[in-house]
Design a protein that fits this description.
It holds the Pfam family Imm5_like. With about 190 residues, the protein is mainly alpha-helical. The chain has eight helices and no strands. Helix content is about 65%, strand content about 0%. It is globular, with a radius of gyration of 16 Å.
């Protein structure tokens, strides 16, 4: 199907698939939440974003509160005291945004799908002294824990294009892993 206004192909994306994707993104983002909370103990915004997207994944409606929680987590990332905490808050923000994923086959949308896991991976990697093996291991975890529905959704969107940042490399790695059949393993 092609959108008549922009010429962009639309992607079939059911509400159930969006909720499964939201749940997986919340699981990914939650893995680095403690790094934000340790750095900024009195700031609940990233946790609230993850709680809001989990509620959506469990059947709650998309709401202004959900959208607002994502924006607030993004603002928290800008106020984070460390790069690791910043990435953890971004992961929470991006996870909350999955409820609003546009069903358009654009490179921008695939980055929304991959963003929570990639930001979590970079958060953990930075906390470990920029040890890339730590970030790579987190991407393996994310791929291994992606439900079949997440893999099917990813395959409807364009591949993640290479980029010049470490986050782009992690997104590219995750994109490739999710498009492979079967379980992703290191060295596969």
């Amino acid at each position: 199907m092609t959108n008549q206004i922009s010429g962009v192909r639309e992607v079939d994306l059911s509400d159930n698939e969006r909720r499964i994707l939201a749940s997986w993104c919340a699981d990914c983002a939650a893995r680095s939440l403690h790094l934000f909370e340790a750095a900024k103990t009195s700031d609940p915004r990233p946790r609230r974003a993850i709680e809001a997207i989990r509620a959506y994944a469990q059947g709650a409606k998309r709401s202004g509160e959900l959208r607002s929680s994502g924006w607030k987590a993004l603002r928290a990332s800008r106020e984070a005291p460390t790069p690791s905490a910043e990435a953890a808050a971004k992961a929470a923000s991006y996870a909350a945004a999955t409820a609003y994923l546009h069903a358009l086959a654009t490179p921008h949308q695939i980055r929304h799908i991959l963003g929570p896991a990639a930001q979590t991976a970079i958060s953990i990697e930075l906390f470990a002294g920029s040890d890339t093996s730590v970030g790579d291991s987190e991407i393996v975890w994310a791929a291994e824990h992606a439900p079949a529905e997440v893999r099917q959704v990813v395959q409807r969107f364009p591949n993640r294009a290479p980029g010049s940042t470490r986050v782009a490399a992690l997104e590219l790695q995750l994109d490739a892993a999710l498009r492979r059949h079967g379980t992703y393993r290191t060295g596969a």
